[in-house]
Amino acid sequence: MSHVAIYYDPVFLRHDTGSHPENAHRLEAIVSNLKSAPFADKLSWITPAPAEISDIELVHTSEYIRHIENEIKSGAQYLDADTVVCPMSWDAALMATGAVVDAVRSSVEDEHIKAFCAVRPPGHHAEADKAMGFCLFNNVAIGARYATSRLGLGKVAIIDFDVHHGNGTQNAFYNDPSVYYISTHQEYHYPGTGLANETGASNATGTNMNIPMHADDSDEEFLSQFDEHIIPTLRKFSPEIIMVSAGFDAHVDDPLAGLSLTEEGYAGMTRRLCDLADEVCGGRLVSALEGGYDPRALAKSVEAHVGEMLKYSIG
């Protein structure tokens, strides 16, 4: 095994949301567990640089970015009913996006082929001009657009296995044939988007796949979807990098949803994505944390996810 990059900065813990489900204890559990994992010496911990505003503007409007900065710096505590902020949230959000951008650049430039971005706040609900669902900036969407706009990649795949549909990511690329977005999520759950018939628009029709999962679906059902639909679809698309919106709230122990994945299921999904990455894009895979609200289950699921990535790492 060779090294996987872990992008992390303590500023993520200073995004203080109090007793909100998306809180610093989540990330503390992940970091502590990774540092004591059997493969801890195979991880390369990297401190990212904050994102440039011009990179955030690849997905979000200038007006929205200024609004978020002004709200936070003026002492706002909520951006919407679900999204809590504090004075350090601006710095944390810039660093979270910067981590994903740095990881994408490093992967494409063959420095660290595989990476996990241990970041917060999460991103996949954030729209071009709206914060929602605990999310400020859409970290993975910005990373994908950075890959196509700044690094010249022609095809990027995003797989989102968070229990909630990534409405912001879908909308960012719904008319963009260079990015294939695939989501597995609990049907009829927040935010109410992600129907199976939402497949993209205009010349991007056929580059958006939603797979609503039934309550209590477990490892077997998820892995069947990967084997029968997700992996064959991505193999045909042949992306130049695979990105993962890695939410772990479909875990059986998660308090905010009703699916029944285990650590073994997350390992199995990761294994399939790594196999495909080796086959079609030189092993390039960048994953970024989204949801997951039971600290123990979250930490063990991330360990399973990163452990599988290590088995495939090169460089």
UniProtKB/TrEMBL annotation:
Gene Ontology terms for molecular function: histone deacetylase activity
InterPro entries, per database record: HDACs, His_deacetylse_dom, His_deacetylse_dom_sf, Ureohydrolase_dom_sf
Domain spans labelled Histone deacetylase: 20-308
CDD domains: HDAC_classII (cd09992)
Signal peptide start-end: none
Pfam families per UniProt: Hist_deacetyl (PF00850)
GO biological process: epigenetic regulation of gene expression
Record-linked Gene3D superfamilies: Histone deacetylase domain
PANTHER family: HISTONE DEACETYLASE HDAC1 (PTHR10625:SF10), HISTONE DEACETYLASE HDAC1-RELATED (PTHR10625)
Official protein name in the record: Histone deacetylase domain-containing protein
Phylogenetic placement of the source organism: unclassified sequences, metagenomes, ecological metagenomes
